[in-house]
Amino acid sequence: QVRVAEFGGESVHAGGSLRLTCTTVGKNASGTCMAWFRDTPGMNRQGVATIDAVGGTNYAVSVKGRFTISQNDAKNTVFLLMNDLQPEDSAIYHCAVMRRPNCWLDWNGYSYWGQGTQVTVSS
User: Fold this and answer.
1) In this predicted model, what pLDDT tens digit does every residue of 38-59 receive, in sequence order?
2) To 5 degrees, how large is the angle CA 79–CA 83–CA 88?
3) What are the angstrom distances between the C-alpha of 53 and each of 15, 42, 85?
4) Where does the pLDDT of residue 1 fall: very low under 50, low under 70, confident under 90, or very high at 90 and above?
């Protein structure tokens, strides 16, 4: 069992920055993906960014160039640095873990999820 927890969500103005943190307990360091997803009312869950065990990353087109995903050396904590935030980035951001070496941005396959942290961007 892997426990996942996110924090760092806040209310910011457009153009601002935030860094979200995702901590895990019970996660193996190798052979797993970690990812950020976001939920917006009335929309499907959107994959934001992924990072695999060797540091390979992938981003949704809408956040590429603005968001950066990274992890610590122990590979049990993941960060999402979000720059130039826009109102359309407002969402509940969830961290998820998948026990596969190859990551993808679809939420299917991710077995462990955190409760989420709210990000609100005002214009």
Assistant:
1) 999 999 999 999 999 999 999 9
2) 100
3) 31, 33, 27
4) confident
